[in-house]
Amino acid sequence: MSFHLSAQNLRLEGSTLISTLANVEGQENDASIDLNSIIGNEDGRFFWGGADFASSAENISLSIEGGDNVPVLRAQLRNAEGELVDADLNLGERLGNNDGQFVLI
User: Taking a C-beta distance cutoff of 8 angstroms, is the pair 54, 36 a contact?
Assistant: First the structure.
């Protein structure tokens, strides 16, 4: 299950995603995950399974979009030529909630 369906108080602090997530009993649990440890930058594009995107990023932000409140990571990432490129990544595609904790799915 995508984490954002059970998330409250979702925010980004630096490259760390923080939220209150419901566990299997419905209780609220404070959770966080450093996106910098699971997302990389490949020539100005985010990619899952990488790391350290923040070292080549500016204007990192979190946006909640659409009727489904989809969490989107946005930033300007440096490409191979050193130019800043607008990039975005739907965090709901690969982040889940496992008993009140963030997990990759």
Answer: yes
